[in-house]
TrEMBL record:
Signal found in the keyword field: yes
Annotated signal peptide: 1-21
Keywords: Signal
All copies of domain AB hydrolase-1, residue ranges: 176-268
Superkingdom of origin: Bacteria
Protein name per UniProt: AB hydrolase-1 domain-containing protein
Gene3D superfamilies attached to this UniProt entry: alpha/beta hydrolase (3.40.50.1820)
InterPro entries registered for this protein in UniProt: AB_hydrolase_1, AB_hydrolase_fold
Organism: Naasia aerilata
Amino acid sequence: MARRARALVSVAVTLGSVATAAALFAGAVTTRVARTVVMPPRKRSQDTRVFSVDEAAGTVVLSSNADSLLPGDYSFWFDQGGGHARLGQIVDRGVGTVTRRILAVDFGDLAAARSGRFSGWYYLSPKELGVPYESVRVPTSLGLAPAWLIPAERPSSRWVIQVHGRATLRQEALRAVPVFRNAGYTSLLISYRNDGEAPPSPDRRYSLGDREWLDVEAAILFALDRGAEDVVLMGWSMGGATVLQAATRSRLRSLVTAIVLDSPVVNWVDTLLYQGRRCRSPGP
């Protein structure tokens, strides 16, 4: 009986150790997922390989993936953000490779690059749009947040406030400016807390729209002071979630006449589950 009791105790201790290890592992994975979502990234993953550059032909051969196979013109960042090129149409495809046209190399040495990443941005500055603009600062509860003010072609009381997504900058919104300007809108492209340009919050973490919307409200006040009477809010990704928060929680929400969303986060549960799968975390 004593031997059997010792065996049972040994099994219990082993099971307890396994359970503890599993709990520690689950806790570590959970922490990793949470930090991935709320902490602004210090570095961006470069998931596209650069195999070769043909400067005479103006082409680059890249690894084939979901981004490199997309039609259209895109930004391509390399050298951990130290280099930037603009890539155009696909001109050839091979086994595991894709060849794209090089439209421009703005800075850096693309020929020396070994990897990079695609971005939905195309423009780096409002200068490239060929229209007047003003660099302004929006007063927020944390301080002055940089923004670009791009006036409509003719004086207008219709404004659109454009809010970029998570881990990006206001350059992301530049592609929407020509559409709104042609429709008679003045565009205000804002920065917000913890995006690397606006003043950070004390914890320096994203709150997934739960606090960022206050900076959108500050932008609405700024627009009103400049003569806006009709305000449209536009947001990309997490910026879409932030816009929705502002439209439902701001004391100025009655002034918002329309909302435009591009790939918005409307359900954080689904987003977090997706992030968990990417991190290969266990279901429970």
